[in-house]
DNA sequence: GCGACAG
DNA sequence: ATCTTGTCGC
């Protein structure tokens, strides 16, 4: 399996290689943060999404015994245009570094039921931030040869350039490859991104660890995630896929 | 041998 | 990931 991951990493493209307009990737009318650009009036007067805006799909799983519920929610300019899911039997246990082999088939099953063809796939888990630079997001991005990004809540490997504790919303810092990563030390493999943060004292929210999946550069990956976040810790596509998976799961009980 | 380790 | 009440804060 490890050798297959190295082959996947070789086939992966960690640079921008997509058709759509990167500045058109976004969630609805951004409520809070984001220090990005001017208020582009790309939205049609009737409030519907521009038919040419890129399709961003969020993919996430919920589990029930030895079954996986893989959910996919596709957004276009912040609006849901399609939702699908698949329930599959699991055969492989969770092993750090081999997550794609456990959740890969369920995800493929769910994506195959999709009517549209997403321009960008957002996965829960790492992409290039992986021992062999072939995390879940990279693995599936290559399989479908579709631009993809990895969004993880915890760091698998690599070293943040700065301490990540208690940072303000919008903050980001590079994640460099270290001894645990199969590439030159110091290589930029992703970023820690503070998508949300509490105003005053008390506890603080941990950052997101985002990395290129396939056909997207590290810097662009953070820009996409930042543009897809809308007040919550998780970007909209992922957040919706997450709750949809839970919804399907509860109806399954 | 010990520690580290996405979901 | 999942099992789960209350609790603190915006």
Automatic annotation (TrEMBL):
Subcellular localization, as worded in the UniProt entry: Cytoplasm
GO terms classed as biological process: DNA repair
Keyword ATP-binding assigned: no
Single GO term (MF): deoxyribonuclease V activity
Secretion signal, residue range per the UniProt entry: none
Keywords annotated in UniProt: Cytoplasm, DNA damage, DNA repair, Endonuclease, Hydrolase, Magnesium, Metal-binding, Nuclease
Polar residues bias locations: 24-48
Region named Disordered: 1-54
Site annotation Interaction with target DNA: residues: 94
Pfam families recorded: Endonuclease_5
CC per GO annotation: cytoplasm
Keyword Ribonucleoprotein: no
TM annotation in the entry: none
Cofactor: Mg(2+)
Protein EC: 3.1.21.7
Residue numbers binding Mg(2+): 60, 124
Catalytic activity, reaction form: Endonucleolytic cleavage at apurinic or apyrimidinic sites to products with a 5'-phosphate
HAMAP family: Endonuclease_5
UniProt similarity note: Belongs to the endonuclease V family.
Described purpose of this protein according to its UniProt entry: DNA repair enzyme involved in the repair of deaminated bases. Selectively cleaves double-stranded DNA at the second phosphodiester bond 3' to a deoxyinosine leaving behind the intact lesion on the nicked DNA.
Record protein name field: Endonuclease V
Organism in which the protein naturally occurs: Halonotius pteroides
Classification lineage: Archaea, Methanobacteriati, Methanobacteriota, Stenosarchaea group, Halobacteria
